[in-house]
Design goal:
The protein is α+β, with helices and mostly antiparallel strands. The chain is about 40% helix and about 15% strand. Helix 3 runs antiparallel to helix 4 and helix 3 packs antiparallel against helix 7.
Length: about 260
């Protein structure tokens, strides 16, 4: 794929097929070099099965980011098929689990700030999908936020324009918009009235209730990702299992 920041290609790294995000030379300014370094700092620190696995990066010549290769995105699948409720719930659980991990980061929570269907990547399972959150270009440690969120306005919380108001609850708002998108299979509308019209199309009372809580105008009224995990029926992200999977994945890449 190709976007404003660069092009994503399939590449090989030590015999492993990976995704290579090559940044356009025209955007490599001193400021963008800072953004690139910030993304790499965050990506190198975090490891979770529901976050796209970061492999490495370089700024020698073209700036390139290497990650694991995923076959499709949530947006692409929503354009071609209706997801049954069980799959919507499973994807919602995976995304919530990834965000819970970021929001519980110490010493300061990490805010993704760009949750969207394009940034949720999918790999097939026998009865559904495993979802992984990608793209940390907009992510920031909460105590270091200095810029407005550059993500899609359709997913952005009302406070996104004010850096001093950014908190993990901003991701909760975007997550609620993502739930609407999965249920109605339409790109999110930006205005509150249009978003409400999309919510009214959802024929799933429990999901409507969760969406309304997530997209509340007041951040304090939105649930945390821990609360959402409990509502979705997966209160525990089973960290020991996740750490084992991460260790095996990293060891496999290192061996190759």
């Amino acid at each position: 794929g190709r976007g404003g920041w660069g092009e994503v290609k399939i590449a090989k790294f030590r015999g492993l097929r990976v995704a290579a995000k090559v940044l356009h030379n025209m955007i490599i300014s001193e400021y963008n070099q800072h953004l690139f370094s910030r993304e790499m700092t965050i990506a190198a620190k975090i490891r979770h099965p529901n976050l796209l696995l970061f492999i490495g990066a370089t700024r020698e010549g073209e700036a390139v980011i290497l990650t694991e290769l995923m076959p499709t995105s949530l947006r692409r699948e929503l354009e071609t098929r209706v997801l049954p409720r069980v799959q919507i719930t499973s994807i919602a659980q995976d995304v919530a689990c990834a965000l819970r991990y970021l929001h519980q980061w110490r010493p300061s929570p990490i805010i993704h700030r760009d949750i969207s269907s394009a940034n949720v990547l999918l790999e097939p399972l026998p009865n559904g999908w495993r979802a992984k959150v990608s793209d940390y270009g907009s992510a920031q440690f909460m105590n270091a936020v200095t810029t407005a969120a550059p993500g899609s306005p359709a997913y952005a919380a009302p406070e996104a324009r004010y850096p001093d108001q950014h908190s993990p609850k901003m991701d909760t708002f975007s997550y609620g918009v993502l739930l609407v998108e999965m249920c109605v299979r339409r790109f999110p509308e930006s205005s509150p009235a249009q978003r409400e019209a999309q919510i009214l199309q959802i024929q799933w009372a429990a999901m409507v209730s969760l969406v309304r809580r997530c997209t509340s105008e007041r951040p304090a009224d939105r649930p945390s990702m821990r609360d959402i995990m409990e509502l979705l029926g997966r209160p525990d992200c089973t960290p020991h299992y996740y750490l084992t999977v991460c260790a095996l994945t990293i060891a496999s890449i290192t061996d190759q």
